[in-house]
Amino acid sequence: MTQDQRGPAYLCSFMSVALTVFQIAWSTTWGTLHVRIRKGRGYARAREAIGSRDDWYRHLNPVLFVAQLALSVACFWSDAPWLFELHNNVPLRLVGAALLSAAFLLTLAAVRHLGDNYSPCYDPHLPGTLVTSGPYSIIRHPMYLAKLLAGAGTLLLSGSFWLAPSTLYLFAATLRATRCEDLQLLHLPGYPQYAARTARLVPYVR
């Protein structure tokens, strides 16, 4: 290997290590947060369920989450044909990492303002109070927006076509959940007025 060849090889190895550390750290932190707030279905205590539980999504989601992590890390280190490469572009991977970071920060802000009003999209419960502070002052479903950002970020970070179907499924399930929740919460005092002055998912886009 010549000196000219050695430089790019070192850079490629550094990026592979950096992206692997980021993906593992992000996935561990994201997963730990959601496991903690969903433990024992504490969010459901003394609260009325709205709509129906989506057990299919509840069971499929963790499987997809682990599969996405494994595929992403594999794509950082290999260009094997079975990975169905979408791209091998470092700037796009960094955009994906930025979207994942934004998704986590938005989730933290939403959880902090929701407090005991939180419930997951596959097992929705009527909130005790209408939350209109923090990100909820601008959009009605910041946690769902975070899911969409995380899905797009994971696809870009991995660069694999394998993740396209799961990303599309995530988008469809999330958009369906926002529509259903908007309809189910219309009888909550103040919600129609709140919905009239806020965007559903994208800030300032009704």
List keywords for this structure.
206 residues, mainly alpha, Four Helix Bundle (Hemerythrin (Met), subunit A), 6 helices, 0% strand, disordered N terminus
Quick overview of this protein structure:
The protein is an all-alpha fold and 206 residues long. Helices cover 63% and strands 0% of the residues. The radius of gyration is 19 Å and the shape is elongated.
Reported CATH architecture:
Up-down Bundle
- Kindly name the structural category: mainly alpha
Total of domains: 1
Strand tally, please?
A: 0
- DSSP summary: helix tally: 6
Q: What percent strand?
A: under 5%
State Rg: 19 Å
CATH C-level class is Mainly Alpha
Helix content: 55-70%
Largest sheet: none
What does the overall shape look like?
elongated
Averaged pLDDT:
89
Oligomeric grouping of the chains: single chain
In CATH terms, what is the fold-level topology?
Answer: Four Helix Bundle (Hemerythrin (Met), subunit A)
Terminal-residue CA separation: 57 Å
Low-confidence stretches: 1-7
Order of helices and strands: HHHHHH
Describe what you observe in this structure.
By secondary structure, the protein is mainly alpha-helical. The protein has a single domain, classed as Four Helix Bundle (Hemerythrin (Met), subunit A). It is 63% helix and 0% strand. The chain has helices at 3-38, 55-77, 90-114, 142-158, 163-184, 191-197. Helix 2 (55-77) packs parallel to helix 4 (142-158) and helix 4 packs antiparallel against helix 5 (163-184). The termini are far apart. Mean pLDDT is 89; it is low at 1-7.
